[in-house]
Every structure is written in C-alpha cells, then in structure tokens.
Design goal:
It comes from Streptomyces hintoniae. Keywords: Membrane, Transmembrane, Transmembrane helix. Helices cover about 60% and strands about 0% of the residues. With about 260 residues, it is mainly alpha-helical. A two-stranded antiparallel ribbon has the order 1-2. Strand 1 and strand 2 form a beta hairpin. It is elongated. The N and C termini lie far apart (about 160 Å).
C-alpha cells in the first residue's frame, strides 16, 4: 500500500484473486469450443470471436442432454399443440358467430338437440346385413302357438318379440291355408310378396308388416304398441279374407267365354 499524490493505492498483486479458482474450473467444465475461447493469456487483449463460430459453439453446448432433462416428451408436445389448435379454432368460430362465445354455444346446443331428436326418431343407425333374417329359426310351430307367444310378449311389454311372433303367425297361417307353400329359410319380404298375389287387397299391409319385422329383427329399431297392434289387426283380417286364386279367375273367364 502506498500514498501517491494524496491517493491511497494498493498494488494489484497484493489483493487475493478470488476469481482464480472459478476461472480454472470453467475451462474444465466447458466444451472444447468454449475452452478455446478462454485459453487466451491474461496479458493479451480480449478475444473477438466471429459470430458464426460463436453461434455454433453455443448451439453445440446447448445440445447436450444435461440441458434437456426436463423438456416435455413427444406426446406432451403433441397434446399441447392439439389443445392450442382447438383453442384457436374455438376463438375463430366465436369471432365469426353473431354474439361471440355465447352465440357459438347456442349454435352447438341447437345442433346437438337436432342430432338427439333424429337419433330418438330413427333409432340407432346400423348397417344392414348382406342377407335378410329368416322368419323361422327353431322347431316348426303352428299359427296358434305363434299367436299365443306374441300375446304373451305383448302383455309383458316386449314389443319387439311380439311383432316377430305375430308376423310368424301370419305366415304360418297362410301356409296352413295353402296360400303359401311351406319353404324353410323364407324371409319376411319374400313371404309378403308371395302372399300379396292371392290377397292383393292386403299386399300393401303385408309389405308394411314385413318391414316392421325386418326393422326389429336386424335393423336396430324398437317396436311400439302401435306397430304391434297394426300387425295384429292384419293377422285377424287375413283370417277372414277370401283369396283371389288364379285358377278360379281362369275358370270364370272360360265359363263366360263358353256362354
């Protein structure tokens, strides 16, 4: 320590160098590129590193795994990007909808209400199978047995089974009256088409009954008391119906021609 010109000065060499241990440790911890920048002599002027090598050295250093241990995973980044996209989409839709966010919510609720009403009215959509369901898939039973089974299901509110059994009763009754030939594997549509020839005045109702049978059997629809009552009324009307036979028509036509 000396007093020169009235100013107390201290020789630099007399002060302990507190930064010397850190200066010695920094080159060892840094990478080769960084160490090359720190090895300049203290007597030389500070180094001026060009921009591109400095950027490359920093990029190389930051690419080490120790700096990315807490980075989000690929799944987390994908989810964050997805939710950001959803948020931007919602904001865009809200800005384009009259009333902003409230207007958008009203539109969404209205669309959901329409979809719910269609679902309730049309039932669960299902694909139609390649082949239609057959009428009879168990042991042969009489028309009376099928009617009894239908009434039992109707009494318990099992309308799907009631419609199925009543349609089977109709077809079995027509077979017992020889208006339909007994043919295993016949479908409801085939039976309705064949029965419409001797009973033309009931052909449309027969097709409707066959469609009801198909809807509840493999179409995913639910029968109602109204649909069962409709097919039960058809069954009773067919029991009293007189068939229109082609042989009888031909005989009457031949008789008229002879006269």
């Amino acid at each position: 320590m000396s007093l020169a010109g009235g100013v107390l000065t201290t020789a630099p060499a007399a002060l302990p160098d507190a930064t010397e241990p850190a200066a010695r440790a920094l080159p060892r911890a840094a990478g080769p590129s960084v160490r090359s920048l720190l090895t300049a002599s203290g007597d030389q002027p500070p180094l001026t590193v060009p921009r591109d090598p400095a950027r490359e050295a920093a990029r190389h250093e930051l690419s080490k795994g120790m700096y990315h241990e807490n980075d989000p995973s690929l799944v987390e980044r994908a989810l964050n990007a997805f939710w950001d996209w959803i948020g931007k989409l919602f904001e865009t839709a809200a800005s384009a909808t009259p009333g902003g966010t409230v207007g958008l919510i009203v539109v969404i609720v209205a669309v959901l209400a329409v979809i719910g009403a269609l679902w309730w009215r049309l039932g669960t959509p299902r694909r139609h199978p390649v082949s239609a369901a057959v009428l009879f898939d168990d042991r042969p039973r009489s028309a009376a047995e099928h009617r009894s089974a239908a009434e039992a299901h109707a009494a318990q509110g099992h309308w799907n089974q009631a419609v199925q059994e009543r349609m089977r009763a109709i077809v079995r009754s027509l077979e017992e009256r020889a208006l339909l030939d007994v043919r295993p594997g016949r479908t409801a549509d085939e039976a309705a088409t064949a029965a419409g020839r001797p009973l033309p005045s009931h052909a449309a109702r027969l097709r409707t009954a066959a469609r009801d049978f198909d809807d509840v059997t493999y179409g995913g629809r639910s029968a109602t008391p109204t649909s069962y009552q409709r097919i039960a009324d058809l069954d009773r009307d067919l029991e009293r119906a007189r068939p229109h036979l082609a042989s009888s028509t031909a005989a009457h036509a031949h008789k008229g021609a002879a006269e």
